[in-house]
Structure prediction request, 266 residues.
Amino acid sequence: MRDASPRERAVAAVAEHAPDHRGSWSSFGGGLDHRAFRTGDLVVRVTAPEARAEVTREAALLRLLAARLPTPVPRPRFADATRGVLAYPLLPGRPLLGQNPPAGAATHLGRVLAELHAVDPAAVDVPREAADPQEWLADLTGPAELLDVLHATAPPPTAERVLAHADLGAEHLLAAAGRLTGVIDWSDAAVTDPALDIARPYRDFGPAFLDALLRAYGRDSPDFRRRITFFARCAALEDLAYGDPAYTRPAARSLRWLFPTTTRPR
Prediction:
C-alpha cells in the first residue's frame, strides 16, 4: 500500500481533529521538509514523514512563545504526531520575501528577538546546535571568490546559546498595513548562536535595517557583527544555490552589501 500524500494526511487530520471545519483546500507553499495547505481560515502544515513526531514539540514551543513575544506567532489548533500535521489559524499579512520591510520593522523585530533570546533554553524542548562556522563552510557552494572571502573571514565559534528561530528569513516574516504581523515556521527552532537570527534579516534587508535592529535588540559589538555577517553571507550563497528565483533574486541583490569589495558573478 502506498504512503498517503501530504494533502491526504492533511485532510485526514482535519477530519479527525476539527470535524466541524469547512473550507475549500488549496496549496499554501512549502519547503524542503514540509508542505502547507490552506482550508478556509486554517493553515495545515505537513512535515516530511521522518519528522512527524516533531509537530508536537513545535506546538508546545508556539504556545509558550505566543504568551511571550510582542508579535503574533501561529497558535496551534491541533498537532497530529501520527500524521505529522500541525494546524493553526491563518495569520494576517504576506511574507516579506522580495519586498521592502515596513517602516519601523527593524525596531519591532529587534524587540521580538530580545524577548525570544531571553527565554530560558531549559524551558523548551528543541535541538541544541553548535553553529560552528567551519561546519557551515564544509558543504557550502558558490562562486570561488566569494567562498575565498568566507574562508578568510570565518569567526571562531561561540559558546553563547539562546533559543532562536534559526531560519528567520524574509519568507517567515509577515507584514500588512505597514507593520509586522507575524513570525511563522518555527520548525527549525534551536538553542544556538543568537547571531543566526540576525543574519538573515541583514541578508534580506541590508545594513540600515541591521543597525536599527541591533539598537532595539540592545547589543552591538565587532565580534557579534562578525558572526552576523559570516552567517548572512553563508545564507545568501545557500539561497543562490537553491535555484528558485523567488529566493535567488533577493540573494543576488544582497551580495552588494555582503561582499562590497568582491567581484561578483554577473
